[in-house]
Specification:
- By secondary structure, the chain is an alpha/beta fold.
- Helices cover 41% and strands 12% of the residues.
- The protein has helices at 23-32, 37-41, 50-68, 84-91, 97-117, 130-138, 161-170, 194-206, 231-237, 245-254, 268-276; strands at residues 78-79, 121-126, 144-151, 154-159, 178-181, 216-217, 224-225, 260-261, 282-283.
- It is globular and about 55 Å long.
- The protein starts with 22 loop residues before the first helix and ends in an 11-residue tail after the last strand.
Length: 294
């Protein structure tokens, strides 16, 4: 399981600087002809920009994957939360490293641009079910939509600043225990990202995609796919569709996964997985990542 934006923090790369996997960063810098080291090594670096946040998470996740991959006897399937889908496709072999890095950079650029043109916010609803979140959004005066179904009792909505403010004010009357704004740069996975989706489609038309070594579960419909070309449309669509993460984790287990591992910075996805599939062993990331059960 590969994390997405939200897992970033300053100094993510400090523990990796003298590790062989740091070559991931050097290869990415060569592919894009720009420096990333300062984003990963400076404990005071600002990661407020969507582009910087996404690329720092992607590179840290790929360093972790390069470290843990040789220890795995088999992989039943991959999944990635939002941006993590691109990481998952690189890990599964659908995207070559340089093509994947360039595609992730274009995705980050488009979402940053769309967020600046159509500002938005996101808000997590604790103690809420999907139906409650949908009813809250649909009954409001502003533009607000379901953005993430993360785990039982944790749903994220997003929309215009006015739409989110309206939902926040009314959340208690819909049985929501707590509504908390997220520190993100836009209303991701909503119609406000339509411009990003359209622009990203142009990049996806030309990127080479190969057969996968193991299926990747799509955020859009929580189904597993092992084809390459089909991911062009899935990656385009997922910018404007909710992340169905709860169902995605359930799909991994239904495929036969007996262990789940978060590969990348932090342990947000590991914590969600423990709530989604209690009883299934889950490992959060330790950097550098330790061996995962086969």
């Amino acid at each position: 399981m590969f994390p997405g934006q939200g897992a970033q923090r300053a100094g993510l790369g400090l523990v990796w600087r003298d590790h062989p996997a740091w070559s991931v960063v050097e290869r990415a810098e060569a592919a894009l002809d720009r420096s990333f080291a300062h984003l990963l090594l400076d404990p005071d670096a600002s990661l407020d920009r969507t582009e910087d946040a996404q690329l720092s998470v992607l590179l840290t996740s790929l360093m972790a994957w390069e470290t843990v991959a040789p220890t795995l006897a088999s992989v039943v399937g991959f999944a990635g939360h939002s941006l993590g889908q691109v990481t998952a496709l690189i890990a599964a072999g659908a995207l070559g490293f340089e093509d994947g890095i360039r595609l992730a950079a274009r995705r980050a650029h488009h979402t940053q641009d769309a967020a600046e043109r159509r500002p938005g916010e996101m808000m997590v609803l604790l103690g809420a079910a999907v139906d409650q979140a949908l009813e809250l959004c649909e009954s409001g005066d502003g533009q607000c939509w379901l953005a993430n179904d993360n785990a039982p009792g944790q749903v994220v909505v997003a929309g215009t600043p006015a739409g989110v403010a309206d939902a926040e004010e009314r959340a208690g009357s819909f049985g929501v225990r707590r509504a908390t704004r997220l520190r993100v740069g836009g209303a991701f996975h909503t119609p406000l990202m339509a411009d990003a989706s359209a622009a990203f489609a142009d990049d996806l038309r030309t990127v080479p995609l190969s057969q996968l070594s193991a299926p990747v579960v799509s955020n859009g419909d929580a189904r597993a796919y092992d084809d390459g070309d089909g991911w062009r449309q899935r990656l385009e669509d997922h910018l404007v569709r909710p992340v169905r993460w709860r169902e995605s984790v359930e799909t991994l287990v239904s495929m036969g996964a007996t262990h789940l591992a978060e590969v990348g910075p932090g342990s947000i996805l590991a914590g969600l997985a423990r709530r989604i599939v209690p009883g299934v062993p889950v490992q959060g990331s330790e950097l550098p990542l330790q061996e995962v059960p086969a």
